[in-house]
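<context>
A single protein, sequence plus fold
<entry> Chain with its tokenised backbone below
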Amino acid sequence: MITWVMYDIKDDKARTRVAKYCKQAGLYRVQYSVFLGTMNANQKDSLELQIELEIDDTIDKVYIFPMSKNELQETVLLGQAFDKNLVSDQVKALFF
């Protein structure tokens, strides 16, 4: 499944570790606190558990959105939707 992970994490160390977990899960950074990629249900569950251990659930915010390829292709991107320095061809391929 295609998965978005978006977060707002206050602690620098926790934020860095969450980004590392997203990359290890095979997700691609599309903005500083936004990752996108494909993963199976087990990978998503594992990532969710890793993130839960890092964040302060009283102040931090994390969103994990699974979606189908059709839903992704219907996504509207406006302005500078992706950081061109971060987005890879693998991410661009998800939209086509």
Observations:
- DSSP finds four helices and four strands in the chain.
- The CA atoms of residues 2 and 38 lie 4 Å apart.
- Residues 2-71+78-86 form a domain with the Alpha-Beta Plaits fold (CATH 3.30.70.240).
